[in-house]
Amino acid sequence: MLLQILDYLGVAVFAVAGSIVASRRGLDFIAFLFFATLTGIGGGTLRDLLLGVPVFWTVDERYLLVCLAVSIFMWFFAHHIERLGKPVRWADACGLAAYSVMGAAKAMSVGDTVLVAVLMGVATATFGGILRDTVAGEPSAIMKPELYVSAAFAGAGSYVALTLLGFNIWIAALAGIVLALFLRGGAIERGWTLPVYKSRSPKEPN
Amino acid sequence: MLLQILDYLGVAVFAVAGSIVASRRGLDFIAFLFFATLTGIGGGTLRDLLLGVPVFWTVDERYLLVCLAVSIFMWFFAHHIERLGKPVRWADACGLAAYSVMGAAKAMSVGDTVLVAVLMGVATATFGGILRDTVAGEPSAIMKPELYVSAAFAGAGSYVALTLLGFNIWIAALAGIVLALFLRGGAIERGWTLPVYKSRSPKEPN
Amino acid sequence: MLLQILDYLGVAVFAVAGSIVASRRGLDFIAFLFFATLTGIGGGTLRDLLLGVPVFWTVDERYLLVCLAVSIFMWFFAHHIERLGKPVRWADACGLAAYSVMGAAKAMSVGDTVLVAVLMGVATATFGGILRDTVAGEPSAIMKPELYVSAAFAGAGSYVALTLLGFNIWIAALAGIVLALFLRGGAIERGWTLPVYKSRSPKEPN
């Protein structure tokens, strides 16, 4: 029950992050709805397609209602939400952290293996945002050094590792969420990045 | 039988709209084929994957033959088709209208629920074009205020609503197609748009 | 057994081509991993989703280990690999040739028809690269006149055609691979292109 509510909250948070693309570009309401839905359910949709299980929102369409409600809310209040600034990014960070663990957990529940579970966690947490940026023609999170995909990676990875080590899944989930949130929070508040690749030779045309 | 012919016609119309991207950029024949196929079958492919049913063109490969035939035709006659101007846009509008209803109808036939059916109608009608524009690096229809995705939405929505109200499915289908065509036609001939979001606060970096 | 090793090699070669995007842009290690995995397994993933069979790397996660190993290797040695220049492009060409035939063969093995098999060969060989370029915001191979998608097309097409004519599948596979490699090699060494479409009328706004 609590998990279910958290799940809707996760979709809602990502839908907010999606519809902000539409508000910044000054698009129409249908674009709000499009980007809210694409970002809100994109990652989970990819996960379910790859796992070969029914896509979650075709089974329970309340997820779509959440995206619709967020779009309507954002159409009227996006300028207030934008003004919040960091709270929006923290909400997005919570979504990222929660989904990295929930994606990995869903993959493990259908009998997949370790690396697949980690990858599914990362995909669930980040694919919606990457899709949104690609369609909108903006550089996606993967092209920036800021911790983002890596935070999802750490969350999904630590959940899977702790589960395999025999820890209770609630403890493993909590640890994964806290780690992902800590890393992403560091990126938001302190600009944490990973070291980037430095070319040690002049670039040649390929 | 009539429905089947309409279905091939829909793929053909979208394939024309796809191959025009290749002709405008002065690409080679394989690019004609690629964009014709991507645009012609992209929306229906997404719909079938999400619904978990066999992808339509893996069952009946005549859809691929349609895309091939359109590519060959366009390779020789794209400049004549381009010269038509508005007729091309009207053909595309017919495809959009027909597919919004057919996508929703297919979703309802496999037992999905209301919102899912509407979403499938919109996806079938618009995803091929969005995919084409994203791969070609052009701004997609979703980024423009012109009625496009919204016309598909109105078509799929009214079809689903009328069906639920107990209307005969043929009447519901006709009403949905006419409404979508009317809205998209208004966008083509009169430049109809939806109101866009106006920011009421200075933009802040997120 | 040999086939299996060739399959891992194909994923590895594409993963190298993917991680080079990350090294050229000076991104972090997670981006190396992301682009290596997206490019390495993207084409085969699309093929399996469209065919409705379990996605290959969810069944055998050694494919993911290959992508991980390539990413680590490239993180340390990308500048040496870049310096090789043409050998990288030839390795990519080998991947393209091998996958065009293997994609078509997998499609035929699950009972699909001729055109579908050819399309699956092309998709397996080229989709990973197209996805990589689209996410990275670069013009993809399909937008260039150079033989690339067309080489995959020739490889998959000749494999399917020879199989239907009753040739032994190993001979058909060899012929398809050699043909694709010959065409792609010609593009690399001699700049072979297909003729492009020349507009014969002034462009009109659509």
TrEMBL record, chains A, B, C:
Keyword Phosphoprotein: no
Native source organism of the sequence: Roseibium aquae
Protein name: Membrane protein
Superkingdom to which the source organism belongs: Bacteria
Family from the record: Belongs to the UPF0126 family.
Organism placement in taxonomy: Bacteria, Pseudomonadati, Pseudomonadota, Alphaproteobacteria, Hyphomicrobiales
InterPro entries per the UniProt record, alphabetical: Gly_transporter
Cellular component per GO, a single term: plasma membrane
Positions of transmembrane segments: 6-22, 29-57, 63-81, 110-131, 151-183
Subcellular location: Cell membrane
Domain Glycine transporter: 5-78, 90-162
Membrane topology summary: Multi-pass membrane protein
Annotated signal peptide: none
Pfam family, one: Gly_transporter
